[in-house]
């Protein structure tokens, strides 16, 4: 009866639909992403429309139109990447990384990089500008996943991944020199998460975290404005009139929202007090207009994303797909955590946008491209890699002790070897 039903349905009998195409993780990731994009579109319009209208720049929908335009471009990219084989991602890893590093260097060249608010982070002209540091995030994840997947076993020492550490350090230094400490921290945390996924011993990661903390502290006190920002983080209310103004206004917005908020579009801070409310501080506007309930709903969506992304990494086919899923998931969660902690006053303000929510053209397109890779893995995507190092000697010795049913003890047809002429058959253990 099942075969006849299959023939009536127009498909060959005995063939079932691949389960990975409708997996729970795939549906959760896609649903969470679409909900975050819808959430972002509503809040970008709410956070930017009043100030834009009062400034006489159109009807207040300028940033919403840009968000929808870049979101549509990123959604198309996500769909294309999710349908392609991961082997293509391997081929594009080297060129993408080289392009990102060259652009990071070009940003520092006078007359080439575009400076906004004292930071030189953009390339391009007019409305067609992009941030190379955002491209570097995804390029580093692709490169790290490829390099770590080619190793035959678990990592035992940092020197085994020296090329990755050198490339990551170069990218982090170039980004930090723009200056962009927030993106540099995202690159650092994402690389550390990938090393954890690859099995790096905790003692080396702890030592690396200590060294990184000292370097960040030295970097933070090396310039007057960074020292002031650090002191502002420790006590923003003492600097509420100058350096701590934005942090204090963000906390006021969050605190005035209460449980359910003032109502959508009713924020006061976004009009007169909180500059650039539609970018880095959009979470504060969510807290003011939608209250604790709105912030909790947003955190719940990121929680769904984390659950599904890590499940995809665990169930992925092959080391490369697993590390790639872990890297993209870590990239989104590290960026979201930094933004959340900064707005809540638990970390210094670093200018990191909230993933899929804040207005930011390059960030939105790049993250949706990364989502395409994650959905690709959730659909069962895999890639073929060759190991570049021989198997460790202790692994080979262990395999020789494991008995006659391993591949190296078998004949060409996969069966056990025949005893040589005149030899005796080994007793079964």
Structure description:
There is one protein chain. By secondary structure, the chain is mainly alpha-helical. It has 15 helices and three strands. The protein has a three-stranded antiparallel β-sheet. The chain is globular and about 60 Å long. 39% of the residues are buried.
Question: What structural keywords apply?
Answer:
single chain, 429 residues, mainly alpha, 3-stranded antiparallel β-sheet, 15 helices, globular
List the helices and strands and how they pair.
Layout: H1 2-8, H2 24-54, H3 62-83, H4 86-107, E1 114-116, E2 119-125, E3 128-130, H5 132-149, H6 162-176, H7 181-197, H8 202-220, H9 224-234, H10 245-256, H11 269-272, H12 282-315, H13 319-343, H14 361-378, H15 393-400
Helix pairs in contact: 2-3, 2-12, 2-14, 3-14, 4-5, 5-6, 5-7, 5-13, 5-14, 6-7, 7-13, 10-12, 12-13, 13-14
Short description:
By secondary structure, this protein is mainly α. It is built from 15 helices and three strands.
Low-pLDDT stretches are 1-21, 387-429
User: What's the Cα radius of gyration?
Assistant: 26 Å
The helix/strand series, from N terminus to C terminus, equals HHHHEEEHHHHHHHHHHH
- Rounded mean pLDDT score: 81
In which order are the strands of the major sheet placed? Answer: 1-2-3
Q: How many beta strands in the DSSP annotation?
A: 3
Decide which structural class fits the backbone: mainly alpha
State the helicity in percent bands. Answer: 55-70%
Distance between the termini: 49 Å
**Major sheet, described briefly?**
3 strands, antiparallel
Give the DSSP E fraction (strand runs of 2 or more residues). under 5%
Shape: globular
Number of H/I helices: 15
